[in-house]
Write a structure and sequence with these properties.
Blueprint (H helix, E strand, L loop, with lengths): L9 H15 L17 E11 L12 H5 L3 E11 L2 E5 L2 E2 L13 H5 L3
Antiparallel strand pairs: 1-2, 2-3, 3-4
């Protein structure tokens, strides 16, 4: 919301949401950066819409994760998720094949650093 109201620039919001986390876990610049050689993992977000969370729209295998946010309304809607340059989620539907993504293990030494 801070970027939508002008309290933060889009660039500052991206740093906070993506780049800083990737650095913190030692996976930057492979993740957290849009550049040649980095993974093409992106989320396209529409800030003009709202989303009310329902159990059937969550795809997590985490136990009871859906109960945490069920019925809550958030500003914005995820329109598309792109992994390695391929759309895997489009307008509420999974379009990717299982196993398309790959796990990136955080660097334990990076996590211990003071940022």
């Amino acid at each position: 919301m801070a970027a939508l109201t002008g309290r933060l620039s889009i660039e500052q919001a991206v740093r906070l949401i993506s780049t800083n986390g990737a650095r913190r876990f030692g996976i930057y610049p492979h993740k957290g950066l849009i550049a040649v050689g980095a993974d093409a993992d992106l989320v396209l977000y529409d800030p003009r819409q709202t989303t009310t969370i329902r159990e059937d729209m969550l795809f997590s295998q985490a136990r009871a994760c859906d109960k945490l946010y069920e019925g809550r309304t958030f500003q914005g809607r995820i329109r598309r998720t792109i992994v390695n340059g391929r759309a895997v989620f489009v307008d509420g539907q999974i379009t990717g094949e299982p196993g398309w993504g790959r796990f990136v293990r955080p660097d334990r030494n990076a996590v211990a650093k003071d940022f």
